[in-house]
Write a structure and sequence with these properties.
The complex is a heterodimer of chains A (106) and B (153). Chain A has 106 residues and is mostly helical. Chain A is built from 4 helices and no strands. The chains are: A mainly alpha (106), B mainly alpha (153).
C-alpha cells in the first residue's frame, strides 16, 4: 500500500475475502448438487426447494466467513491490489465453473 | 399478478444495470463533492439487486414449473438446460457482489486510488453479470414463446 494513501476499512477486507471464497463455494455447491442426488435431496428437504437452501447457505457463509476472517485477522496485511485480484479471481472463477459445468453437463 | 411479478423483476434488474453504469462513471471521476452520491448510488445498486433477486426468486420457486415443462418440450430446451440453470446460480454471485459494493464504496475513494480501482472492478463485474442475467432472461422468455408457437393448435 502507498503509505500516503488512506487505509481501507476492515469490512472491505473481510467481506472482500469472504466474497471471493463464497463465489467459488457457490459454484462448487452447484456441482455437488447436480452430481449427488443425496446432496440435492438434502438441500430440497431442508427448505422445500434446493435453490432456496443454496441461496441461504451461500449468504450464511458470506457472513460467517466475514466474521471468521475478523477473528483470525486474515487479510489484515493484504494489499488492496491483491484484494482486488482475489475478488476478481473468485468472481470470474465462479462464473467460469458454473457456465463450463452446464456446457459440459448439457 | 404473476406477469406483474416477472415484469418487476426485469424492471429492477434494468434499474440495477443503469445505476451501476452511473456509479461507474461517478467513481471514475471521484471527487470530494460526489463521494456522498457514490455512497447512495452503491446502496441503490444493492437495493435494486436484492429486489430483483427476491422477485425473480419467488417467481422461479412458485411459478416457473409450468414454463420449464413447456420449454423442455419445445424446440429450445437449452433455454432451460443451459440458460436458466446457469442464470439461477451465477446471480447468487452477482447478489454477493452487489451487497459488497456499498461496503467497498464507503471508503474515501479520493484519498485511496487503489480502493477506487477495487470499486471500479466490483462495479464493472456487477454491470457485466447483470447484463448477462438480462440476456439469459430474454432467451428463457423466447424459449417459452417458441414452445408455445410450436404447439399444435
Amino acid at each position: 500500500m502507498n503509505p500516503q494513501e488512506a487505509p481501507i476499512s476492515k469490512p472491505t477486507r473481510l467481506f472482500g475475502l469472504s466474497l471471493a471464497v463464497c463465489s467459488v463455494l457457490n459454484a462448487l455447491l452447484v456441482i455437488a448438487k447436480e452430481k449427488s442426488k443425496a446432496v440435492s435431496g438434502a438441500m430440497q428437504s431442508l427448505t422445500g426447494h434446493h435453490w432456496i437452501t443454496h441461496v441461504a447457505l451461500v449468504l450464511f457463509f458470506f457472513v460467517a466467513f466475514g466474521a471468521l476472517f475478523a477473528v483470525t485477522k486474515s487479510g489484515a496485511k493484504m494489499s488492496v491490489p491483491r484484494l482486488t485480484h482475489f475478488v476478481l479471481a473468485g468472481v470470474i472463477g465462479s462464473v467460469v465453473i458454473i457456465v463450463s459445468f452446464y456446457l459440459i453437463a448439457g | 399478478m404473476k406477469e406483474l411479478l416477472l415484469l418487476s423483476h426485469v424492471l429492477f434488474g434494468v434499474g440495477c444495470v443503469l445505476t451501476t453504469v452511473w456509479l461507474f462513471v461517478d467513481v471514475l471521476n471521484a471527487r470530494e463533492n460526489n463521494l456522498p452520491r457514490i455512497k447512495w448510488l452503491s446502496r441503490a445498486v444493492a437495493l435494486f439487486m436484492w429486489l430483483s433477486f427476491f422477485l425473480g426468486g419467488y417467481w422461479y420457486v412458485v411459478d416457473y414449473k409450468a414454463d420449464k415443462a413447456l420449454i423442455l418440450k419445445g424446440p429450445w430446451p437449452f433455454a432451460h438446460d443451459f440458460f436458466m440453470e446457469t442464470k439461477e446460480h451465477f446471480v447468487i454471485t452477482l447478489l454477493l457482489l452487489a451487497t459488497y459494493l456499498p461496503i467497498a464504496a464507503a471508503n474515501n475513494l479520493t484519498a485511496n486510488q487503489e480502493a477506487r480501482k477495487l470499486v471500479l472492478w466490483t462495479t464493472a463485474s456487477v454491470a457485466i453479470l447483470a447484463l448477462m442475467a438480462e440476456g439469459h432472461g430474454a432467451i428463457i422468455a423466447v424459449g417459452v414463446k417458441v414452445a408455445l408457437l410450436a404447439k399444435p393448435h
